[in-house]
Amino acid sequence: MTTTADPSWETLMCAANRGDQRAYAQILTAITPVVRGIVRARGGALGPEGCEDVVQDVLLTIHMKRHTWREDAPLRPWLYAVTRHKVVDAFRARGKRIDVPVDDFLEVLAAPAGPDPFEAQDMDRVIDQLDPRAAQIVRAIGIDGDTAADTGARLGMSEGAVRVALHRALKSLASLRERMIE
Amino acid sequence: MKTEDLIAAMAADATPQPAVTMRLWRMFPVAVLASLVALLTVWHVRPDLAVALASPAVIKTLIPAALAGAAFWLAQGLTRPEAKARAQWAVVGVLVLGCVALLGRGMIAGGPSGLGAALNSPNLITCFLSIPVLSALPLGAVFWAMRTGATSNVWLAGAAAGLLAGAAGAAIYSLHCPEDSILFFLPAYGTNVLIMVGIGTALGPRLLRW
Q: Which residue of A11, A21, B31, B144 is 20 to 30 Å from A146, comparing CA positions?
């Protein structure tokens, strides 16, 4: 969690909105345990992997909708609203599939976990549905931690083209997840 | 894929996004302008427009324009997931109540047959054909902008989009409409705006899901 020495979530998110990748990674890393806490409190019965799928859904939604946060407003109410919306969605969909009585788990309190020890399943399946190059870019930058420049050099693309492709790939991932939920 | 890997991929895509309000401010005026041009070229403004706009009949344009302004503010507010938009709803509510009160006063003054007489006009059909058509482009623009938003209630946000488009369409149509009686334009425009609110509400869940 943040201490007084750390920049506030709002400061980080403002910097992220101006294209600061480090600030963006920092704020996403900071909010993930909070999102995970909410998801687990609501749906412990999904199991850690199932919960992590929902956490990743929420994070992807935060990514696609981050411009709906107004920079002069506090970040937390916005974050909770997005998380609540996505969690309800996800459980409605998964409830149909695996029939989890969500209400029974509303009272469970879960502390935010530490670093993520779980590998979520759904995201890999969805990444496989992307076109091969887009999937390669997402995996290179996400899993291998390559920069856009490195990835571009390897794939014979300009750095700008890799960025555009990554942006489109994340957008497709978000809508593919959306369709999975429907 | 691990969550930290997803975060790394997302952080590499810190491309700044245009705000929803920015998209609304950009596209809505363009759509209104296009409808206005359609009115000027297809419908034509009433011949005595200058006189009408200088007379009390100007409220026929001002009321829908004010409602459109309030609805614009409301639509903007409803694109944020945490927003309740209470002030915006209050302003819209006050305007709607004002219209109802004005209509009530007009009906008392006009007597029981006044409303029927005012609405018994061929212009009523033109009105019902025109306002939805003139509202269509603004509705498209509003939804186009609001789609990138994150509303907590797709029905209400859709209704607000319909209200904005319908009120804007009514304000544009009022420049053509020769009927200046309160007993004509309040019920006729009001019903058209309600039709647009209905269309917006129906489209909301489809277009504003996220």
A: A11
Length of chain B: 210
> Tokens 């900071």 — which residue?
A30
Give the residue from chain B lying closest to A90, CA to CA: B210
Contact B27, B35 (CB under 8 A): no
DSSP structure class, residue B40: I
Cα of A68 to nearest chain B Cα, Å = 5
Please, what is the Cα angle at B142 between B82 and B166, to 5 degrees? 110
Least Cα distance to B199 among B145, B163, B152 occurs for B163
Partners of B7 on chain A (C-beta within 8 Å) are 25, 28-29, 32, 59
ipTM above 0.90, yes or no: no
| pLDDT tens-digit series, residues B148-200 | 999 999 999 999 999 999 999 999 999 999 888 888 999 999 999 999 999 99
CB contact under 8 A, B82 and A120: no
Distances (CA, A) of B16 to A32, A68, A157: 21, 12, 22
Tokens at residue B208, please? 């504003």
Q: Do A167 and B20 touch (CB under 8 A)?
A: no
- Put simply, whether B13 touches A (Cβ < 8 Å) is yes
Alpha carbon of B76: minimum distance to chain A alpha carbons (Å):
10
Report the predicted TM-score, pTM, of the whole model to 2 decimal places: 0.84
CB pairs under 8 A between A and B: 124
Q: Which amino acid is at A180?
A: M
Q: List CB contacts (< 8 A) between B76 and chain A.
A: none
Long-range contacts from A7-13, C-beta under 8 angstroms, 24+ separation: A9/A75, A9/A76, A10/A71, A10/A74, A10/A75, A13/A66, A13/A69, A13/A71, A13/A75
Contacts B148 to A, Cβ<8 Å: 67-68
Contact of B206 with chain A, judged by CB distance below 8 Å, is answered with: no
Across B13-33, average pLDDT = 89
